[in-house]
Amino acid sequence: MRARSHDLSPHAVWLAAAIAALAAVLWVPAIVGSRAAAFAQPDGDLAQHLIGARYFFDDAWRWPLLHIVPLGVPDGSNLAMTDSLPLVALVVKLLRPLFGTWPNYFGPWLWLCVALQAAGFATIARALGVRDRWAVLGIGLIGVLTPVLLYRTVHIALCSHFLLLFPIAWIWRYLRDPALPLPFARLLACGCIALLVHPYLAAMQATLLVAILLCGLWQDRLPPLRAGLLLAGWLATLTLLAWMCGLAGLALPWGSYGAGSLNLAAPWYPQLSGLFAPDRLVDATGYQYDAYNYWGAGFLVVVALASVLALRHWRTDLSAVHAPLLLVLWALLVYALGYDVCAFDSHVAGVPVGDVIASFDRDDWRGSLSRLLSAHRASLGALAVIYALPVAAFVAFAIRRDRYAVLRFLGAFGAFTLFVLALAPQRALQVLTNFAAAGRFFWVITYTLVPLAFVQCQRHLSRPGFAALLTVAFGLQIADTRPLLDIQQNRFAKVNPAFAQIADLAPRMRVETVVELHPRYDCVQNAFLQLRKTAEWPALSSRYMAWHWLAATVDRPINSVYQARAANRIQCLEQYAHGLPPPTATGTFYVYVDVPGFPHAGDWSGCERREAGLVCVR
């Protein structure tokens, strides 16, 4: 029986994927088929993705590959910055003669993410040595109930968590098998796919590449020079791909300064929990909902039991070869926590995000940085010491074990990082702050530890005992994630209320040459941190999404754009320094949205007042 289980366990991976895919089709057929109401009249992030995809499909082929001219004219925009799944969009555009009209690929991609989520969890279980096909199948299926996946289903590109799961499985397999070669080609291919799905996922994969290189160095399977060349080759390849897609030279603004950092209570404190608190979210910064990382009751029970078992069997289960992986996980935790450490609804240590946003001058970043460091010297110093202690312990442990190859690699990596910061400080800091909603980086820790906890329990419990544990975990996780499932279904069933107010304008908009929307959404987006706290923001954002979607459906170029990163603030201030420009050009469909702080100026005679905005055609 055990031999048969061993032989069939690879099939359990894809059986888990197939069952998960079937469950998704039966549970939410309208969503995975892109037939839900929100796809026809989208709002929020979903509107952003659909708008970018529609414009890219209808636009001509250009260089760089992802550049879209009609969206955000005259400068245009980039498909990756609308989170529109560029990988799929490129394939769909290549096959445009077969489709005729734009096919909505977002629902099928979400279905694929669910299937590969199960396959990814099951693959990690196999990589960790599980050979019981039913255990592999169960671990794979429960992986679909990961709250951080279910929380983000409307942001479909960021549901591609399988791009983290499979590399983590490769790391575990590499650690367990000293004869296995470094899976660099697979990691490189996966990195390129991740970059064309969502840049955040590519950044997370970079940390996994560093982890596997450090593991190879620690085990003397990889010389430092080769490790450095492999890392440089990975970065060079992704940089080349980014250049081809128009991402490498993208003018990034300053980011969100860590407002979406990880809350210390996030993984274990019930949030949007069907068992304990269906409406609760811990949020000390006003933006930490973006860093939602609750594990769920079922996962927490398994992690707690696995921790007890690990303490009992640490001599057999823990090994020095895990030290580099633990170092990378610690670095990810530090980055996810950021400089503003929060617990529940309170600031604990570091620099409060509100202080940074209020006092940071993006155009004098050196002076602002100096003032912040001076004002919070003691708190930041204490935080730096706490963060550095595990690193010092790792260095001491490596010296004791004569693992100097790892230390030389880390030293060279640190020196190179300092060189880049010294060579191009503004550009380097801008890139770092654009990943400042760093709580998402905790996903890597979740997907490393949670499947490991299941395997730890499977390893030390009897087969009936693990089956009973898995059954309990399934029940708890299903009950605990039910609010997330309901929330996502409600979001897909909800239409943009502003679209009905303007849908009849489509024929009039279609005959004009271009649509001008003022103030541009990318300029309003600069004031997001202030406006989003007002009661007017949801309705205001919906109006913008309705106008953008209407222009996309009639394929009219538009001067405004909703991107993942806002436009240059100085350019916006200059354009609207004297109020909103009046309608003057013929062949232009003008729309003016009432936004606080953007007064009208000029002649507005002959314009039509709509609740969603003022419509003017000359």
Question: Unreliable stretches, pLDDT < 50, 5 or more residues?
Answer: 1-6
The total tally of domains equals 2
- Give the overall shape, derived from the CA principal axes: globular
Rg, Cα atoms, Å: 25 Å
Strand composition percent: 5-15%
- Helical region count? 29
* Class of secondary structure makeup: mainly alpha
- Across the major sheet, the strand order is 5-6-8-7
How is this structure best described in words?
This protein is mainly α and 618 residues long. The protein folds into two domains: 145-490, no CATH class; 499-617, no CATH class. Helices cover 59% and strands 5% of the residues. The chain is built from 29 helices and eight strands. It has helices spanning 2-27, 29-32, 37-40, 44-58, 86-94, 96-99, 106-127, 133-143, 147-150, 162-176, 184-195, 199-218, 224-245, 297-312, 314-317, 323-337, 353-359, 365-375, 377-400, 404-423, 425-433, 442-460, 463-493, 499-502, 506-510, 521-524, 528-531, 537-553, 569-575; strands at 67-68, 77-78, 340-343, 346-350, 514-518, 588-592, 608-610, 613-617. The strands form three sheets. The chain has a four-stranded mixed sheet with strand order 5-6-8-7, covered by helices on one side. A hairpin with an 8-residue loop joins strand 1 (67-68) and strand 2 (77-78). The radius of gyration is 25 Å and the shape is globular. It starts with a helix and ends with a strand. Residues 1-6 have low confidence and may be disordered.
